[in-house]
Records
---
Amino acid sequence: MNEHRWAEHAAAYALGSLDPGERAEFEQHLETCASCRAEVQSFHEVTGLLAQSVTPAAPPPALRQRVLRTARRVRPIPWLAAAAVVVALLGAYGYWRAESQKRAFQTALATAQAQLDSTQQVVAALLDSSVAITDLAATGKAPTMRLYWNRARNIVVVTAFDLPPAPAGRTYQLWAIEKGRAPVSVGTFNPPPNGRAVITLPMPAGVKPDLSAVTDEPAGGSPQPTQQPFLVGSWQRRT
Amino acid sequence: MAAGDERALGELYDRHGSTVYALARAIVGERADTEEVVADAFGQAWRTAGKFDPARGTVTAWLATITRTRALDLVRARGRRSKVLARAAQESDAGFATPLAASDAPDRDVERQEARQLVKQSLGELPEPQRRVIELAYFGGLSHSEIAAELKEPLGTVKTRLRAGMEKLRDALSPRISRVEP
């Protein structure tokens, strides 16, 4: 009989439904065949789970004492064996909990890693000798945004300190403005309710802005500003 | 027996007692016999705990096997047929697991509830002939040829169904089965 034929017995063996002759033969084979043993074991776990298919029934409370009494009579057990059972049962029982926790941790870890990556990118963009900085403020008010323009990589890190989210259906749009030319859109953004945001946007190629400004635009942004900017900053002083 | 040992057994019982009880009850039916099976099963588990190897299977599977064996032995010793077989004689369809209602005990253990859901669903999704042979083997303790006689089906058919059904179950339950490398 080849290996494949033997493996056919595994499910029935785990269920205990092999006829006696077959069972004896198969048990002999199992002694020397690790892959059949693994098959049997996986089907054995299926039979263990089948116990869960019966309607749950609560044992009478007195049964617990009886079990302990019977066991006491059965034998005094070496503490090591007892410990093994506890370890094993905790292991088996904790397995699924551990598995779901593991998945939750993995998700959390991936999120944290993504946050870390993005933070590192921001830091790398900021720590460069080519970085120019400008503050954006509404007239007569404290700055609510600061821009870091990494000219070597031509990216702009936008930080907002105290900028409420745009109204529903609207978005903020950042513009790069060169004197004598039409404003060029750098990108749109919308801070979370706490008003704080750090966003990295690419500076459009070839644009050397003198000013940056923020307007409030319909969601999705506009090709050209449709409103007067409410935040303006100049690059000239610093670049 | 040292106090610590007994605590370990108590813990084993508290974790698995209701599963063992429900399984024993599904097989032997009668309450006094069920309790005897449960006490015997835990006694045997206790006696052989030193041989239990966590690397080779879960406690659940180990206890279920002991319980089933004890329950089927008792049924045979009583010269009776398993409760499932008695039912099987009357009911031709609709799995045995569900109608074997004892007093319903809401299970507070969410994971076990989930496992129960999955097992029931997986069993329910099996073609009826496959589920039937598995239930006759599992709850009735019947061998291939006994099942064939019971169902008046060819032996080969029974073997094929049982194996196909078990393979489907193993697939369906695979998220709950820890694999061991051969």
Note: Residues 108 and 114 of chain B are 11 Å apart (CA to CA).
---
Amino acid sequence: MERNKKAKNILKISIASLIIIANFVSFTGCAKETSKNRGDSGEAKSVTLLNVSYDPTRELYQEYNEAFVKHWKEKTGQDVTVQQSHGGSGSQARTVIDGNEADVVTLALAYDIDSINKNKEILSKDWQKRLPHNSTPYTSTIVFLVRKGNPKNIKDWDDLAKPGVEVITPNPKTSGGARWNYLAAWGYALRKNGNDAEKAKEFVKAIFANVPVLDSGARGSTTTFVERGLGDVLIAWENEAFLSLNELGKDKFEIVVPSVSILAEPPVTVVDSVVDKKGTREVAEAYLEYLYSDEGQEIAAKNYYRPRSEEVIKKYTSQFPEIELFTIDEVFGGWDKAQKEHFDDGGVFDQIYEK
Amino acid sequence: MAGSIPIQIKTAKTTPAERRAVKGSKIVPVILTAIAILFFILMLIVPLISVFAKAFEQGANLYFASITDPIAWKAIKLTLITIAITVPINTVFGLTAAWAIAKFKFKGKNVLITFIDLPFSISPVVAGLIFVLLFSTSHGLLAPLLNAWGLKIIFAPPGIILATLFVTLPFVAREIIPLMEAQGTTEEEAALTLGASGWKTFWLVTLPNIKWALLYGIMLTAARSAGEFGAVSVVSGHIRGLTNTVPLHVEILYNEYKFSAAFAVASLLTLIALINLIVKNVAHWKIKQQSKI
């Protein structure tokens, strides 16, 4: 008898779980319907955008999304929700290639957006001409973060190549920031050695010989340096360095500005095939354009990205140290060339990182 | 009986050398136990306490705020849904597979056992990539089908559930197969000879015999479903509020310097582990009781 009872109990439990499944199925069914409703944007009440971004923009877009949601509601009366996804720039591009339906991508460098198009045209080929300043609404550069008091006395790129200095930087294969770091070091060496590529190669090789771990994204490297306490110097985005300083205490770290660095341009674009499928082109385009507005520029500056707007940058001049900056087009002839020469399989990075 | 008397006399008069030997053998277990306990404290208790200490570092208010935060809540919900789907499916699968393996003889039995173990031996990252290769809407094997029906599997909740199903597939079967094999088929045969139907035999004879092992298998499945990181991370796309499970949310919080919040959410996972431990002990105790009868 008792066994019978227990068996019945188990039966009850299984029925209960079936009901839960049934609920879930109907729940996803509803979700599907609402997403269908979103398609015809004219009458739709709310709309959802997915912004696939790179690692250090978490705080920037958290603030910006709030501002844009408000702006869009005032302008059109429509509710918009912006979903965020962050990770190493290269791996984020990879998820879009694999079918992650991003309405907009805001990645660390133009090459990653180009690579989305490699196999199949997912977005327009001339995407970079669609918005002002090569579709980069804000810029940044590469600086150093060192431990308080600068115990290894790091002043410029030369000090990173010295033996006994541990350098933290992410993996250029997966991280956009890491590629900017690498190119900044290379550009400095070229300039110092009268454009001698062999010497530049030696120099960058010496820096990477000092790197104990390569994380996959910029944020991973920052936590390695800041939280795990590894390394003497972190090569980082300027915005990332400022953020760590503010989040984790000015008494623990300081920023060192090198004599020369690279002008890092993280571009943004709408993913055409996705917005056309979802019917979100209008709001997605407005989302990116609003980055260029005074409010958008101001939010960028507050999050330590260098704004494009002359007026906003004047307001924040004290925040950004003056550095001599070179562009990737000047020194490397554009991203395509730089990528092929340095970061593709068998490229210079593979040659110098072989141990 | 006769032999026991001289032995008793002998133990009463032990030589000093023998006494030392007895003493020595007492020290060894003490040292071994001490090492075990020390290791246990260092590797398990201290980390457990530190998770909760860090979680409550900035006060209980922040702790509850980080758990009830809408995005955290959505991650918790997704994890619960994943558990609610994975556990019943894998329980039914585990039961049928174990039933077939333990109670019947058929060709290819070893192949089936090997396949059940496959998710154990494959790295979770590879498991995740398998699903990308299958379900990617741009280059996956099933891409034409998915696009024709407008379905999204990876970078959406179904992909997370599928990946979790895959990873947790062996747990139930692996827990009950040894027990079923040890119990043999005599009781079922008796029930069948007495005229019980196949179903009745299963519900009234087989199931009560294995219920504690089954429960433990279910708990393991639930715990792994809640905690799976690797495979889920690959198919998730990390869209917050949509495809983030609790472990992924912990990583995000940690990467955003919200350490207390990260550990607050992590403490939920730790709680699941603790409940799991308790159920495991109860289940083992019950299995022992059962075998005594």
Note: Chain B touches chain A through 35 residues (CB under 8 Å).
